[in-house]
Amino acid sequence: MNYGLYLSATGVMANSYRQDVIANNLANAESTGFKRDVPIFQERLTEAQANRALARRSNPLMENLGGGLKLAPTAIDFTAGDLELTGRTLDVGIEGNGFFAVREGRQTLLTRDGRLLIDKDGNLITGGTNPARVLDQQGNPIQLNPNLPTQIDETGQIYQQEQVVGRLGVYDVADHRQLMKMGEGRFLAGPDAGSMTQGSGLVRSGFLERANVSPASELTQLIETQRLLEANANMIRYQDAMLGRLVNDVGKIG
Asked: What pTM was computed for the model?
């Protein structure tokens, strides 16, 4: 196989994946609490580098070309987004480190999406297409009176008729790299993330955290990625044409 074709093919696949990740970031630029994904690649070893037994069969000149690119696990950028004033008392954002905790089925998930509602049964739930019950500092669902006005202070204390009726849990884990996206802006802590502890962030009532996506920056990266993808695709066409001439023209002369 033509080695250049292989390298160009890995370039197409890598940049196609990067393009999809950036497009997803742009699509969620207005999603509350969304955290952008960062595509990561690493150099692929050549077969001779990966298997020393093959080193004798390799051409040193070819080894200098490298083995192309391969995908590494996509990282999540947990940089905080800007807090946007909404004025709604049940909209809450976190200033600093930490996450709200919600109960989805049997799982406890973490989120920075603070669009909260009180349902007809008095359960404090998240907004969005898949509501989940919000948990307090003890990990229990929060129950409120749906007929009373509600206020939340910076420590997460919830007041109704000037009485403390609950407290929002603000949690954190030691290793954010072990958090996995579960949709709806929620994260599941993997087994190596460490136990959930109290987060240090302050609760800001009347604010929501915007996505940490810069549309201008993402669009610039998208254009750059499209150009790289096209360049690698063109190299495949050029090398295919060269092989065609080698077989059809040079072969006839021979």
From this structure: 0.83
